[in-house]
Design a protein that fits this description.
alpha/beta; Purple Acid Phosphatase, chain A, domain 2; 7-stranded mixed sheet; about 15% strand
């Protein structure tokens, strides 16, 4: 399994090298989420519950007490053993600060381990300078810690266990590093429970660091979650190809539901992992948002918009710092891009507005994920960086032409590669790569329509009309830009909804002429189970090509490639250098490469 290389490994620019034609997929549990299968079901259900919860008056952030900048600085300095004086971290350390930024992480276990191997390595630049990029003093997570929801169990399975296996191979850490994070929407689907168990400061761990008491160490060990067993790679590949991972996920859902129900009836607590941690890193924050003075004139802000908007606490917290004018430059860590696919992105724009910032006027280094690709663009005095390649499935970059002058400075994967990957979506959906729930749904609807037609033309056409109306509603709701481009959305959705409703009739007609002898209602339903997903896949592809929606189509592919993270050097004068490090074929051979380099 991929791990860090001891000693600095050479880091060469990737340049314009074409991506490989085939990619290695993970073959050990936990497997990547099938977003059109049962493994995504808990995330979808918790999304609905979380949205309903967010609409109420109770806010999960009511328990939080965000540290003042000086308090968080003291905590980070304590972890980093920085005895110096001053109001910023570079002054406390007496040197530059190194930061590793990664976002959208815990999904496929093998991919997660490979990303950990990249993050925990040191790199020697191959530019003649002889410079080495050391591992970061700070490790900052930019949201969506695990999928489909960042519960403690999923975070342990998909993030901390794979990452800790890599850290264990490095041996005992020579020094401690600080851990910071902000929540994304998948963290909020669990009400920040899993997020808090990883990122909230742990007094027990602090005491253990200071005392090294054997009894305390054993007590802490018992609080950790069990490490999952690993299967052989060949077995894992067969296991996934037979969709046994979906079967196991369904059984796991049922088991969890039954266990939770019995716990409630019996008046017992549902057993959970008490704490999550990464070897050699210490959580330092007390809230889901924070502010750390990095260097004279430069802060790093971590913001949390929950599932909708930033709350009044954060507005007061950040605007108080902005009004004080201690640091005119900010590195803003956000759960949402301000610009996505070359267009303004409403959630990110609202975050900037709530913080009283404007990329065109205020110098901001905007670091974000959410979109699972890399894109960098300069905006006035600011730098906008999307680096969502920490482990989750790939989102391609924009496939439509950019407006003149709006092209990003760097995109990974590039436009041609993204277009080529998007073209595979209908076929991959038919093949079941993204899961089999749509196949089952299309088969069920086809059976209903054909049953109705057996009772007469009128019942049959009524059933088909209802199927078309249901499909139109779902396809309409799936497009975030439906209000900005209503007629384009309606046209694309209506055309595909009508074709989807006619699939069973077309299947029956085709089979009666091509295979008149074995033709039957059962074969009609079976053909519809594959023809229906093809229509849906074509609909998703059309959304990408027209720019109506960019992400859902790529979820079908569950693509394991183009993973990356950003290593930043904050100089003592507040200037920032950054190197984006990644691999096109994450699990394939070859070392990581330099994807991009920038200064701000």
């Amino acid at each position: 399994m991929t791990g860090p290389v001891r000693g600095p490994q050479p880091l060469r620019p990737r340049g314009d090298a074409p991506p490989p034609k085939t990619f290695v997929r993970g073959a050990h549990e936990p497997f990547g989420i099938r977003w059109f299968g049962t493994t995504a079901l808990p995330g979808q259900l918790r999304h609905l519950a979380a949205e309903a919860f967010a609409s109420g008056q109770l806010d999960s952030r009511d328990w939080m007490r965000a540290q003042q900048p000086a308090e968080l600085l003291n905590e980070v300095a304590r972890v980093l053993d920085a005895p110096g004086e001053g109001g910023t971290l570079t002054e406390r350390l007496g040197r530059d600060v190194w930061i590793d930024f990664v976002a959208d992480v815990g999904d496929d276990g093998d991919v997660s381990s490979a990303v950990a191997g990249m993050v925990f390595s040191e790199y020697a630049l191959q530019d003649g300078s002889g410079r080495v990029l050391p591992r970061g003093d700070l490790l900052i997570f930019g949201g969506d810690t695990a999928y489909p929801l960042s519960s403690a169990w999923e975070t342990a399975r998909r993030l901390t266990h794979p990452w800790n296996r890599v850290l264990e191979r490095l041996g005992e850490p020579t020094r401690l590093r600080a851990l910071l994070g902000i929540p994304g929407n998948h963290d909020w689907y669990d009400g920040l429970d899993g997020f808090g168990r990883l990122f909230r400061r742990d007094p027990l761990r602090d005491r253990l660091d200071q005392e090294r008491d054997a009894d305390l160490d054993e007590q802490f060990r018992l609080l950790q979650g069990p490490s999952p067993s690993e299967s052989g790679r060949a077995f894992g590949r067969i296991y996934r190809q037979l969709h046994l991972d979906e079967v196991a996920a369904s059984l796991g859902l049922l088991e969890d539901a039954v266990a939770g129900a019995f716990a409630v009836l019996a008046g017992r607590k549902v057993k959970r992992i008490s704490r999550l941690w990464l070897i050699g890193y210490r959580a330092v924050q007390e809230a889901s948002y924070w502010l750390l003075p990095l260097a004279p004139g430069l802060d790093v802000w971590g913001v949390d918009r929950e599932l909708r908007t930033m709350d009044y606490r954060q507005r007061l917290f950040f605007n108080r710092r902005k009004a004080g004018a201690e640091a005119p430059r900010r590195m803003l860590v956000s759960p949402d891009p301000a610009i996505a696919m070359g267009e303004p992105n409403r959630p990110g724009a609202e975050i900037l507005q709530a913080c009283g910032l404007d990329l065109e006027k205020d110098p901001v280094c905007y670091l974000t994920g959410d979109s699972h690709h890399y894109e960098r663009r300069a905006i006035g005095p600011s730098m906008h960086v999307i680096a969502g390649g920490g482990g989750a499935f790939l989102h391609g970059t924009r496939v439509r032409r950019h407006a003149p002058g709006q092209e990003p400075a760097c995109a990974f994967p590039d436009q041609a590669t993204s277009r080529r990957l998007a073209a595979h979506v209908p076929f991959r959906l038919v093949a079941g790569t993204g899961g089999l729930m749509l196949h089952a749904l299309c088969a069920a609807l086809a059976a209903l329509q054909l049953w109705a037609f057996r009772r007469g033309a009128l019942p049959g056409w009524i059933a088909s009309g209802l199927v078309a109306a249901l499909a139109l509603l779902i396809m309409w709701e799936a497009v975030p830009k439906r209000r900005e481009r209503p007629w384009a959305t309606l046209g694309v959705a209506a055309a595909h909804a009508a074709v989807l409703a006619l699939v069973p009739l077309g299947a029956a007609w085709a089979l009666s002429r091509l295979l008149p002898q074995p033709a039957s209602a059962l074969l009609d339903v079976a053909l519809s189970a594959f023809a229906g997903p093809f229509v849906i896949g074509h609909y998703l592809l059309t959304l990408v090509v027209t720019g109506l929606e960019h992400h859902q189509a790529y979820a079908v592919l569950g693509h394991p490639g183009f993973k990356h993270f950003v290593r930043l050097r904050v100089r003592t004068d507040g200037r920032v250098e950054a190197w984006t490090i990644g691999k096109a074929d994450t699990l394939g051979g070859g070392p990581p490469e330099l994807i991009d380099r920038f200064e701000w």
